[in-house]
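User: What would this chain look like folded?
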Amino acid sequence: MLDACARMFAETRWGLAMSMYPRLLGIAAVVFGFGLSEALTASDVWKGSWKFEIERQRAIPYLTYYDTSGKPVFRIACGMHFEIDAVYPGASPKRDTTGSLTIANGKTQMDFAGFILPPPADPDLGFFPDLPFFNQPDLGDPEAYQAYEDKWHALENRFFDLLDSGQPLTISAEGKSYVLPPINVPRWRARFQKIC
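Assistant: Here's the prediction, encoded as structure tokens.
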């Protein structure tokens, strides 16, 4: 009994040394269950990494969050269109359909209408073969993107401010969500905007 109490006290003392964010995110992960299949566990999501990459052939910038197995969970890219791709936390559709996704940072949020796609038949597409994903072109305003003027830059900056807040990002739909850690890639925004 005393041994169990001592062990509990030691665990509690260590737990108090943790910062507030990891504890709150751990609680949120348990409470919300992240709304994802077992193929994408909460620990795999949180232990992943952000990467800024440039596709050399077409000079397309990507900001991607990968889980521990190297599968993309969330990605933005800019080429012919500005794209948001994310593992969809809601129910998997039987075929392509429309839907929405919310991205929030604890201070602000943006809602996006887009396309929900069933799990890809081709595992080489990079996303999880058993999870649906969300695709949204041009931040919901293709005319602004094509014109590429002040209206587009204001929308793009608002989205980048949301992402670049230094806060965890909550991706949610249909009452289910998962949380990504803050983006920790140096100068990703400047490099992204220099190309796009």
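The first helix runs from residue 2 to 17. If you want, I can go into more detail on any region.
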